[in-house]
Write a structure and sequence with these properties.
The protein has 211 residues and is of the alpha/beta class. The chain has two domains: 136 residues, Trna Endonuclease, Chain: A, domain 1 (3-Layer(aba) Sandwich); 44 residues, no CATH class. It contains seven helices and seven strands. The strands form two sheets. The protein has a five-stranded mixed beta sheet with strand order 1-4-5-6-7, with helices on both faces. A two-stranded antiparallel sheet has the order 2-3. The N and C termini lie far apart (78 Å). The C terminus is likely disordered.
């Protein structure tokens, strides 16, 4: 089963984020599991196992919340038996299930995807629809940071930019640059960077006079 257009759109978005489809049905601990779709992450998300439940078409009894819950609980038990470290996420594509979903969320992560407008090609119809889809599965997507604005001269900009602009003219910026570069790594990195700059300034060759 390929699933509804919404399921296909979700799968396409996840493939774009580095996930790949698993053949279904699949077996774990000798037990066969059938779902509309299953995907697995790569690299840092290699332990992410994503199960797609199509509440639109109702394949595999996917409109029945109790049946969905039973299958996911059975999957969870099979993973426990094999001492698997998979993190299971269930995506409910379509109408919200009214039965068993609260209990299901105690077993795994549950995401609900509905109300996303698709075009005739089965893709989000516009940027708004694309953002809606991303928002509903955001926890599965790579973190993206906003593009920093161009350097500002009117007192705006990041805190670091404002700090640099506030320094007195003629200030030696080596220490400031080192501290700012280390600040994204943590407090200890800042301390180490400052210590290196200060130690370098205090070092001198024998016979030389201190400044």
């Amino acid at each position: 089963m390929s699933g509804s257009p919404l399921v296909l759109a979700i799968q396409a978005r996840l493939r774009g984020a580095g996930y790949y489809a698993l053949s279904t049905p699949f077996k774990i601990a000798g037990v066969e599991f059938s779902f509309t779709g299953a995907m697995r992450g790569r690299d840092g998300r290699a332990l992410d196992l994503v199960i797609l439940v199509d509440t639109t078409t109702g394949d595999f009894g996917d409109r029945d919340g109790a049946r969905v819950r039973q299958r996911i609980e059975a999957l969870s038990r099979a993973l426990d038996v094999t001492a698997s470290r998979y993190v299971v996420t269930v995506i409910l594509a379509g109408a919200m299930l009214t039965e068993g979903v609260e209990t299901l969320s105690e077993t795994c992560r549950v995401l609900q995807v509905d109300g996303v407008t698709l075009n005739t090609e089965g893709r989000p119809a516009d940027e708004v629809a694309a953002r809606q889809l991303d928002d509903r599965i955001r926890v599965l997507l790579p973190l993206t940071l906003p593009v920093p604005p161009a350097k500002a001269t009117d007192g705006s900009g990041s805190a670091m930019e404002q700090l640099v602009r506030a320094l007195p003219a003629g200030t030696q910026t080596a220490l400031v640059d080192a501290v700012i570069a280390a600040s994204s790594t943590g407090e200890q990195a800042v301390t180490d960077a400052a210590a290196l700059i200060i130690n370098a300034a205090l070092q001198y060759e024998p016979g030389e006079e201190l400044p």
